[in-house]
Amino acid sequence: MDIIETYGVTIDTLDISYNKFSRNLQFLLEFDHLTSLNLDHNIIDEHTVFPYMPQLELLWLNHNGINTLYPFIKNLCKSLPNLRYLCLMGNNAAPSYLNDGTSYDHLQYRLFVISWFPMLVHLDDSKVTADQRREARKLFKRPLFEDLLQHTIVPECVKHLHNRITNTLWGFDKRRKNLIV
């Protein structure tokens, strides 16, 4: 029995933590109604690009191999434009008291991530405040064209079609296999 074929259209929450998922996450496209995804303790890194999933609202990526935020966060924002809850704790790119990061480093990290996700309400272990959102906007202004694209309403069907074509033509490596334990 193929679990994805059988349950892919009905599953809205998926916990695939403690596996060996890395860069090829194209199989997630089969979960049409997925709103919550837990990928804690896998081998996701800063080069991982998620497929376009506009319905996803919650993503946990704790304790993976994410070492740098850029372009990871930019790509994540493009793939998951409606993300409301994001957790990256335990990654080197998310400085905190857990990995000897300073308070200043943690604040910079937090504001940078918030600047990319306008709908984010919770990052790591705390809520996103209006003050943090304002400060993030001031600190991490992007070029006008990029800012317009991020805030311009493009029909979801057009975004979805674009990303399906892009993922099909350039994002799928048939030689790579994921190991599920």
Automatic annotation (TrEMBL):
It comes from the Eukaryota. InterPro entries: LRMDA, LRR_dom_sf. It holds the Pfam family LRR_9. SUPFAM superfamilies: L domain-like. This is Leucine-rich repeat-containing protein C10orf11-like protein.
